[in-house]
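Supplementary notes for students who missed Thursday's class. We covered one full example, reproduced here. Read the sequence, then the structure, then the short commentary at the end.
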Amino acid sequence: DVKVRDMQQMRNSLDLLKNKIKKPFIIFLFSKFDGEGLFITTVSSDLAERGLNAKKIISQMGLKGGGRSDLVQGGMNNKNWQQKQDNWEILFMDSKKIEKTIGDML
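Structure (token representation):
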């Protein structure tokens, strides 16, 4: 959970992370505040070239957003937030499930 209130700050946070970690990577950031939320997800260029698509990843998480196949961003209201967050936590806690989900997308 990134503590930001607008998409520009979210993109800046993403850029900082992308510059600090090595490829391959998938980054998913979200922020919740005042009954709303933002998210952004990206895949490294090498994964994108192998066919991994950020839009498919967020779709698996029950989200919709705009962007490109390697970077997607969006927002959501509070009524769906808790349910989605519970699903993410289940997914993120199980590394084997993450590997299978990502593997199925390639």
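Commentary. The longest helix spans residues 78-93. The CA atoms of residues 100 and 106 lie 10 Å apart. If anything here is unclear, bring it to office hours.
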